[in-house]
Amino acid sequence: MLPARAVLSRPTSPAEGPRAAPSVLQLVGNTPLVEMRKLRDGVPPGIRLFGKLEGFNPGGSVKDRPALRMIEDGLARGRLVPGKTILDSTSGNTGIALAMVGAALGYPVELVMPSNVSKERKQVVAAFGAKAVYSDPLEGSDGAIRLCRKILAESPDRYFKPDQYNNPANSLAHYETTGPEIWRQTEGRVTHFVAGIGTGGTIMGTGRYLKEQNPAVQVIAAEPEDAFHGLEGLKHMASSIVPGIYHENEHDLKVGISTEEAYNMVYRLGREEGLLLGQSCGAAYLAALGIARTLREGTIVVLFPDFGDRYLSTNLWVGWQKLGEARP
Amino acid sequence: MVQVKVPTPLRKYTGGAGGVEAQGGTVAALVDDLERRYPGLKERICDESGQVRRFVNIFVNGEDIRFLKHLETPLKAGDELSIVPAIAGGR
């Protein structure tokens, strides 16, 4: 049971909540940190575990941060000007974020994605008015990267490509926002930061900021244990086109996670913590629990990139089991 | 023979080939034949209990076998079977 105070404490008072924002773009970031009190699987009591709920961003994921920062950077450098279209390869959350930012700023957006991304993803992107171009699902995200390069090469003057895999503004977004937020939210007590690697932007930027504040902070990356996996958003680095912004020497440890175990963790997080999250969150939390069990004390922050409602039509939930019968 | 389309991460088992041939009257039999031809492949597709892994999609002529007869979905010569991970990777 939770202490009564935790159960009964009210959300922010209506007198203290945020004021009206001038644009949806001003609502990116400043996501909540929630303590994980129940699903601890043998983690010693001296360890505090926190989840950073990036699903609270207006586009629904952590990717709002780099999308906004990369587009701001493009505008500031004159690389994105009226008449140009924002183009990138993305298997989902970044596409949604770019589509949202593009819509808010009035720039058209074209996204290259493998045709097997979830139906919700495709619908959300379309709802923001962006155009989707589908690549071969057998080639995964690397196929989308290659097709995007081809489209750009054919009409280089038509497009602005944020290029999340190679744009330093991606990790800078986390250096400037995610890192400082975690430092403030934990009052400087964070000892470990755990996140999955997709482009590496989150782990690089956040990790760099936290290590600057306290060099003892440990930065741990979670990745699929195998090239053939079902962890949407994550990359198995050894078998992938390695993103230019990813530098393996900047994190302290990389943990391989099995897809099945990550899926089971997602089911448990819903039932035991009341947090319906995406599959990469399950992977990151498994990595965090593994680290936590080796420690006696510490404050571990795990980044949860999105909520789970955008995966309800995927294999995570559909087909192999009936809803309501998810295995614990 | 059934034409089998193999995704990039599994091509290390097929000598780099994205399309191979195998035989079997059902998807289960075909997966066993694939294992004989390309050892190690079955373990990537099926779990310890022999069921298709949750994140793996198998399509027969474009139809998801989850909505056919799962591993007992019948196959005939000339069919096309695709093995597709449920997601793409990369954000």
List the main descriptive attributes of the protein structure presented here.
heterodimer; A: 328 residues; alpha/beta; Rossmann fold; 2 domains; four-stranded parallel sheet; 16% strand; globular; B: 91 residues; alpha+beta; Ubiquitin-like (UB roll)
Descriptive notes:
- The complex is a heterodimer of chains A (328) and B (91).
- In chain A, helix 2 crosses helix 3, helix 2 (64-76) crosses helix 6 and helix 8 packs across helix 9.
- The longest helix of chain A is centred in the middle third of the chain and has 18 residues, at 168-185.
- Chain A has helices at residues 4-8, 64-76, 93-105, 119-127, 140-154, 168-185, 201-213, 259-273, 279-292, and strands spanning 33-35, 47-53, 85-89, 109-114, 131-135, 159-160, 192-196, 218-224, 253-257, 298-304.
- The model of chain A has no long low-confidence stretch (mean pLDDT 91).
- Chain A has 328 residues and is α/β, with parallel strands linked by helices.
- Chain A folds into 2 domains: 4-61 and 170-311, Rossmann fold (3-Layer(aba) Sandwich); 64-160, Rossmann fold, CATH 3.40.50.
- In chain A, strand 3, helix 3 (93-105) and strand 4 form a beta-alpha-beta unit.
- Chain B has one domain (2-85): Ubiquitin-like (UB roll), CATH 3.10.20.30.
- In chain B, strands 2-1-5-3-4 form a 5-stranded mixed β-sheet, with helices on one face.
- The longest helix of chain B has 11 residues, at 27-37.
- Chain B is globular and about 30 Å long.
- The interface between A and B is large, with 49 and 29 residues.
